[in-house]
């Protein structure tokens, strides 16, 4: 028996505020297959889908799915099917699902699939239960079948961050792309495995390596004293010139 999704209350976010806006550079571009797009527009749509799901940090050739792209261009699958296949791909699982806890993965998917921030801990808990009981496939299917997704993106539109900017506000929400694909706990695990060795400074001459020889320390003191003396003389000279005592 499938556990039903826990109820949670929406919080006030930009995307829940009704309003009418004019076109501006801050307004997200909508990529859709409605209206018979040209081949160039389909290429841009595919690129937008990769950027939305994999984020800027993972836009590498290895993550491209040529077979899926061909099916989308031929009209054999919808944009929603393409998004689903990207979410269930091995590269997305390896780079986003496996390094994260269920809570963080849910937050990441809601940002990229529903185009908004999570409503709170209650929503993360609700979707984490779905992920734990139905697995990644069941979680993705249920997320794409929500009324929220179908209302705003349907079968033909690439998800995007909804209403990041409001005309009534001087500052909008931060882009969802700022969230890295894994958290601090996974980075610490990688560091313990030796993936991020500390950078060791390189020295061209032996006297650059601490502890410094005595003559190097003495030379440094002389340079500092000489520079300080010249600076003091310059300040005094400018002050005397300002008072008319001397002319420069």
Automatic annotation (TrEMBL):
Quote a single Gene Ontology cellular component term.
endomembrane system
For this UniProt record, give its keywords in alphabetical order, as a comma-separated list.
Answer: Antenna complex, Membrane, Phycobilisome, Thylakoid, Transmembrane, Transmembrane helix
Q: Which Pfam families does the protein's record reference?
A: PBS_linker_poly (PF00427)
Q: Does the keyword Plastid apply?
A: no
What is the organism of origin for this protein? Roseofilum reptotaenium AO1-A
As for family, the record states: Belongs to the phycobilisome linker protein family.
Q: Does the keyword Mitochondrion apply?
A: no
The protein here is known as: Phycobilisome rod-core linker polypeptide CpcG
Subcellular localization, as worded in the UniProt entry: Endomembrane system
Kindly list the residue ranges recorded as spanning the membrane: 222-246
């Amino acid at each position: 028996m499938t556990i039903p999704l826990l109820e949670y209350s929406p919080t006030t976010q930009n995307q829940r505020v009704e309003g009418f806006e004019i076109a501006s550079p801050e307004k997200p571009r909508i990529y859709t297959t409605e209206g018979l797009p040209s081949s160039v527009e389909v290429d841009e749509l595919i690129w937008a889908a990769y950027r939305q799901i994999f984020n800027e940090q993972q836009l590498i050739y290895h993550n491209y799915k040529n077979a899926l792209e061909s099916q989308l261009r031929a009209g054999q699958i919808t944009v929603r099917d393409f998004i689903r296949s990207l979410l269930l791909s091995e590269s997305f699982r390896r780079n986003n699902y496996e390094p994260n806890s269920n809570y963080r993965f849910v937050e990441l998917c809601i940002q990229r699939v529903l185009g908004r921030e999570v409503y709170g801990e209650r929503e993360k808990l609700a979707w984490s239960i779905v992920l734990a009981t139905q697995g990644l496939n069941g979680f993705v299917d249920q997320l794409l079948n929500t009324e929220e997704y179908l209302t705003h993106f349907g079968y033909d539109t690439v998800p995007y961050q909804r209403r990041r900017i409001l005309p009534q506000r001087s500052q909008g929400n931060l882009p969802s792309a700022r969230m890295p694909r894994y958290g601090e706990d996974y980075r610490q695990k990688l560091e313990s495995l030796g993936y991020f060795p500390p950078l060791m400074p390189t020295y061209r001459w032996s006297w650059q390596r601490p502890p410094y020889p005595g003559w190097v320390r003495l030379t440094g003191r002389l340079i500092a004293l000489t520079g300080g003396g010249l600076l003091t003389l310059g300040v005094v000279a400018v002050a005397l010139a300002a008072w008319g005592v001397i002319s420069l």
